[in-house]
Amino acid sequence: MSVEFSICSLVSGSSGNSFYVECSEGALLIDAGVSAKKIAENVTAVGGNMDQVDGLVITHGHGDHIQGAGVVSRRYGIPLFMTEGAYATSKQKLGKLAGCRLFRPGGVITAAGLRIHTYPTPHDAADSVALVVERNGARCGVLTDLGHPFPGLEEIIGSLDAVFLESNYDPEMLAHGPYHESLKERIRSPHGHISNSEATSLICAPGNQRLKVAVLSHLSETNNHPRIAQCTLKEKLAQCQLDKKIQVCIAPRHTPSEVVKVARHK
Ligand SMILES: [Zn+2]
Ligand SMILES: [Zn+2]
Question: Does residue 266 carry a pLDDT above 90?
């Protein structure tokens, strides 16, 4: 069982999201929702190199995923991979790009020795997608901004060796928190974000035979707490006797997560 690629989040949450993926043939970024400077700093912190990055895959056009994308592209000469919908809604913000390769939601991107499978999601952004990174059968999901646990999502997670999964809010904290009622409605609507308990159910589903690592990601700063998200999941894993099988960690807001080394299991 050999490690095919490594992946970590660089920053995570409503204040900005980005991932770094590296294999023996090159590296990719996924999303760039903070400044190019911060992304480069965090890539260096995990032992990576911006000069190795062959592309930047954009999941959707919300600011917490594209804020630094234009500068990253120009400064490091990195092409963007994005859907037509994401490009149309963000081109003014992005400015001039070193390159732009359009893909259709549901298509596969091949770059840096990796295959990126894309899946349309019911999130409230044009052509929003979730991703599975694959190399020689080893698979890791980058599944955030999901809208709701849509049909097919369980099957995707059942095919993974590792997953970065959105665990955006604690329903109690959201209900009693400071957000305006209309924003609360948006977050828990079928086009918003998924909760700690939804993420927990997805990770503990009986079909996840291969899953070894779950990194809870895209936590809300206001409506969640890393300890609550982690406890919700760990309690359920223990109940299902999966606590020894699946390793759990949290993607921090401003610093890189643990680097997950992805190998094919089973
Ligand atoms: Zn987001
Ligand atoms: Zn979003």
Answer: no
